[in-house]
Design goal:
Elements: E1 2-7, E2 13-17, E3 27-37, H1 39-50, H2 53-59, H3 61-74, H4 76-88, E4 90-92, E5 96-104, E6 116-120, E7 130-134, E8 138-140, H5 147-150, H6 153-166, E9 173-177, H7 181-193, E10 196-201, H8 204-212, E11 216-219, H9 225-232, E12 238-243, H10 251-259, E13 260-268, H11 278-284, E14 287-290, H12 301-304, H13 319-329, E15 341-344, H14 348-358, E16 366-369, E17 396-401, H15 405-416, E18 421-427, H16 432-441, E19 445-446, H17 450-456, E20 461-464, H18 471-480, E21 484-487, H19 495-508, E22 512-514, H20 522-530, E23 538-544, H21 561-577, E24 582-589, E25 601-607, E26 612-618, E27 628-634, E28 637-642, E29 646-651, E30 654-659, H22 667-678, H23 688-707, E31 710-712, H24 718-725
Parallel strand pairs: 9-10, 9-12, 10-11, 12-13, 13-14, 15-16, 17-18, 17-20, 18-19, 20-21, 21-22, 23-26
Antiparallel strand pairs: 1-2, 1-4, 3-5, 3-7, 3-16, 5-6, 6-8, 23-27, 24-25, 24-31, 25-26, 27-28, 28-29, 29-30
Helix pairs in contact: 3-4, 6-7, 6-13, 15-22, 18-19, 19-24, 21-23
């Protein structure tokens, strides 16, 4: 499909081919017929892209702060590489479109294929032939409203939200400062509701456009402008002033104060500098309000992404209702008078040239038109029976589901250096990241979807690097198709998902590796080799993880939260060090008992050999604190690992210390282990059975946190119970699974005595 792309490096516009986006839970797949270019927002985005690095920094000081923070954590060289990678990634543009529903995901029950809809949302309702948009940002188009006018709904919702924020009753006197597209739509909605509106702009062409549509409008340069406007209202001042301009000047806000009556409301809709003069705002006791984009729900991932609803009695006008209201008003808005210029999507570059050079204030609306012929292939059906694993004859073909920041920073570079590896295909939910990473790392193909890639069979190993709620499903599918698996943590979010993975692993015999990299870290491997065989341990793993913003995707209930998604790492480290198997776990949350939202938790794990592990995960700690500390005590031995940069060991009355350059956390070693597995070698640290144990303990810890108590860890599903406790040979890399309850491990490469019970 065709999509309009912006180069973040130089601001150039192109129309590229991309795989269609994948419909997911709570989303709607739409075949666009029209999309509206938002003149102010998109012009600013393109101008930022075209500016120098210094210019970008001046325009986005918030991102400069992020870069500086990253440099403190990762170093200047690594940060520079990340910035360059970000600049090389194309960006999608657009946030207001209309088209026809192709399909809907689970959880969508009020929209259906074939319905005409309008949609909004940056990153969702883009300038592309096909888009996936969360249901709360999609509304049906009423009969009689053409698609080209429906494409105005999102920008119209911005105007409508500004009017809501004014809280002025119909018939009130309202001044609108700034007559770009949002300002022109604001005037039209005010007229439809019966307000007495006056428009103001510095550009005579914008004033002429408003007058041509029948509005009272004045140039900003008009002598005694406040008096002129007041005379229109018989000497009265504005009950409300809506500032829809975009400028770094303070003039619009200053002008608003002179236009407003005593105790009026000034609503800031556009991007302007707010420095109200005391002479007008204090003496008139004016109220300043901000209008947040399309309305309540904007920037709230629980509403926009997770589909949660607000109680109507408290939030009657959500962004979705605003979208629907604009569509209801369309017959009364006279959008024809905007005389929008329409460009075919293939000519998008010309549309943006017009936007940036001609400054189309007389005709502020630019539409992109789509042919409506983009196809979506039916996803292949999963195979009914498992396929047996067979090792590759030559270079190992590795495919990837997901291509986010972590994979491109920590995993792909390691594999790319290995001459025995060939990248096969890559797939991602939206397609854009897959296209970029395919070019960067040399993947042979960008798959239309993960299902299409898996059905092709063109891989010896598939890396599951997608969001957490899809790990279990994809991992089981990879194994059932007879391919080796690398699955980033967590392996699954529920015991049912772990059961499906365990069953597929048992049938396939394919190597499997989970992304618990810390067990591969040199410091952890050396520590385990130094511990006396079979000795019960006391393990403390303290983590200062730092606070995540409340809108982070981890806190989407479907993603399981930090406990299931990250604390599982530290559970696995303890499980790797302790000889026995986990028996029970308790969990306490400092900030609540909801596993999906808790940021700080403390776990206590007991093991079959009387070992214990305490995991203290501080998710509310300030930046700059050392992140991880691992301490182990047993008969005659004490040890401490500090941020993987050093291992201090007290043994037999002697102290020793090992220092590790770069504080490696095991990512490079983990990728080397993966390629060794694909060659048929055994790697002790790559025990997938242990990964299933760690994932199961995380699930039980989440249950214990929610219940406020303790949970056992014995598996309750048949395949998982067999893999974790039955006397049989385990498939893949981990070596034999013993009949005794303790774990069995091979000796780590280059190590002396194993810390496990031997193999």
């Amino acid at each position: 499909m065709k999509a309009v792309l912006l180069s973040a490096r130089d601001g150039s516009i192109s129309v590229g081919e991309m795989p269609p986006p994948v419909v997911q839970w709570g989303t709607v797949l739409i075949r666009n017929t029209y999309s509206l270019i938002s003149a102010g927002t998109e012009r600013a985005t393109v101008e930022t892209g075209a500016s120098s690095l210094l210019g970008k920094a001046r325009q986005r000081p918030d991102q400069v702060r992020q870069v500086l923070n990253t440099a403190r954590q990762l170093g200047v060289v690594e940060t520079y590489r990340m910035v360059q990678d970000r600049l090389d990634r194309p960006m999608t543009l657009g946030y207001s479109c209309a088209g026809v529903v192709v399909s809907v995901g689970e959880g969508v029950d009020d929209l259906a294929p074939g319905m005409r809809v309008a949609a909004g949302g940056a990153g969702h309702a883009s300038h592309a032939e096909l888009v996936t948009v969360p249901r709360n940002l999609v509304v049906p188009v009423p009969d009689g409203v053409e698609d080209r006018w429906a494409a105005f709904a999102t920008v119209g919702a911005i105007a409508l939200q500004g009017i809501h924020q004014a809280e002025a009753p119909a018939g009130s006197r309202v001044a609108v400062i700034g007559l770009g597209l949002v300002g022109q739509l604001t005037l039209r909605i005010l007229r439809a509701y019966g307000y007495d509106a006056v428009g103001i702009d510095q550009d005579p062409a914008a004033v002429d456009a408003a007058r041509a549509a029948g509005f009272v409008a004045h140039p900003r340069q008009t002598e005694d402008l406040p008096g002129t406007v007041a005379r229109h209202w018989g000497g009265a001042r504005a009950d409300a002033v809506l500032v829809t301009a975009a400028t770094s000047s303070t003039d619009p806000v200053e002008l608003a104060g002179s236009l407003a009556r005593d105790r009026a409301t000034v609503v800031v809709v556009g991007d302007v500098k707010v420095a109200p003069p005391r002479s007008s705002y204090y003496h008139k006791e004016l109220t300043i309000r901000y209008s947040r984009s399309y309305g309540p729900g904007r920037y709230d991932p629980r509403y926009e992404e997770a589909g949660q609803q607000y109680p109507e009695g408290y939030v009657p006008w959500t962004e979705r209702r605003n979208l629907a209201e604009v569509l209801r008003l369309v017959p009364n808005l006279d959008l024809e008078s905007l005389e929008p210029r329409v460009f075919a999507v293939e000519d998008a570059a010309e549309a943006y040239r017009v936007l940036n050079t001609e400054r189309p204030r007389r005709r502020p609306a630019l539409l992109l038109r789509y042919p409506g012929t983009a196809k979506v292939s039916e996803p292949p059906r999963p195979r009914g029976e498992a396929v047996t694993w067979s090792p590759p004859a030559g270079r190992a073909r590795i495919a990837a589901i997901g291509a986010g920041n972590f994979a491109t920073k920590m995993l792909f570079p390691q594999l790319h250096r290995d001459p025995g590896v060939a990248f096969s295909w890559v797939a991602s939910a939206r397609g854009l990241s897959a296209v970029q990473q395919s070019r960067r790392w040399g993947f042979g193909e960008v798959a239309e979807s993960a299902e299409h890639g898996l059905a092709s069979g063109d891989a010896d190993c598939v890396m599951v690097l997608s969001r957490h709620d899809s790990h279990g499903r994809y991992a089981a599918e990879v194994l059932s198709r007879g391919m080796a698996l690398y699955c980033e943590k967590p392996v699954g979010l529920t015991e049912r998902e772990l059961e499906e993975v365990a069953a597929a692993w048992s049938r396939s015999g394919a190597p499997a590796l989970a992304g618990f990299n810390r067990r591969f870290a040199p410091a952890v491997r050396e520590l385990r080799a130094a511990l006396p065989a079979g000795a019960p341990l006391q393990v403390v793993h303290r983590v200062f993880a730092g606070r995540l913003p409340e809108d982070h995707w981890y806190f989407d209930h479907r993603q399981g939260g930090r406990l299931l998604g990250e604390v599982c790492h530290f559970i696995d480290t303890a499980n790797f060090l302790v000889p026995g198997r986990p028996v029970s776990v308790t969990a306490t949350g400092v900030d609540g008992r909801d596993p999906a939202s808790a940021q700080s938790v403390t776990l206590q794990i007991t093991y079959s050999d009387s070992s214990t592990a305490s995991i203290v995960y501080g998710g509310l700690t300030p930046p700059g604190a050392p992140k991880e500390l691992i301490e182990v005590a047993c008969d005659g031995v004490a040890a401490r690992i500090e941020d993987f940069g050093s291992l201090k060991l007290w043994k037999r009355g002697k102290k020793s210390e090992s220092v590790y350059r770069g504080a490696p956390k095991g990512h490079a070693e983990e990728m080397r282990a993966l390629t060794r597995l694909l060659r048929g070698e055994k790697v002790a640290e790559a025990d997938f059975r242990l990964a299933l144990w760690s994932s199961l303990v995380a699930c039980r810890a989440a249950a214990a946190l929610a219940d406020g108590g303790q949970s056992g860890t014995a598996p309750s599903t048949p395949a998982l119970a067999e893999v974790l406790g039955c006397a049989r040979s385990g498939p893949g890399a981990g070596g034999p699974v013993g009949a005794v309850p303790e774990q069995t491990f091979a000796t780590p490469e280059g190590a002396g005595t194993t810390g496990g019970s031997g193999a």
